[in-house]
Amino acid sequence: MHTVLEAKHINKYFKKPVLFHVLKDINFTIKKGEFASIMGKSGCGKSTLLYILSTMDTDYEGELFLNNELITGQDRQHLSYLRNKHIGFVFQFHYLLSEFTVLENVMLPARKLAEKSAQEIEHDAMQKLKMLNIDHLAKKRALQVSGGEKQRIAIARALINNPSIIMGDEPTGNLDSYNAENVFNIFKQLSSEEGLSLLVVTHDEDFANKTDRIIQMGDGKIIT
Ligand SMILES: Nc1ncnc2c1ncn2[C@@H]1O[C@H](COP(=O)(O)OP(=O)(O)OP(=O)(O)O)[C@@H](O)[C@H]1O
User: Distance, CA 24 to ligand 1 centroid (Å)?
Assistant: First the structure.
């Protein structure tokens, strides 16, 4: 199966206040359609790793490949393009623009990529909203919808450019168990039916236990 994400010998040091070796020789691959979670105690380096994998942090040692392309060492502009095109993000807090409509929020990453007309983008955004059963919310402003709906809108937004991988940082951290299960089911369906890869940092054991693979971290290393 095609490899979507590969981390090879990733090491990261924070230099202040004192030199701190935060990530220690991290190696793993995520295949097409794989749904993996990252677990580990607070402070073990999960967010630091996700920040590197998402191409936001370029200050690390080792090599990172996205769809077999070496992304380590690429310039910021190209990284921004790759991130927008191939990676969808879902966070604990949805970061929707509250005064914009739901539809406008979902369209934003596609407008930034600027590879399609406004009409095509709107059509795609409606398709994503339909897929997530929230197309009836399209014209509402983001501040007018519930927490669970906001997270589904954030997922639609993450999907708008048809990414290869969704990266999540505690995507169910702010949801009740009903909505958390709903988000899990959406992710599961995206991986098994659409071949999307997912890599989700979570403290939620129930969520992690249902994913294809748990990457367990401890003290800056992958334990299993
Ligand atoms: N900018 C920074 N400078 C120095 N140390 C940092 C910096 N950011 C994080 N750290 C330290 O690096 C370690 C890993 O932090 P990180 O946020 O990656 O952990 P985490 O596993 O995501 O934790 P949590 O589950 O609490 O979110 C922690 O000890 C943290 O204090």
Answer: 14
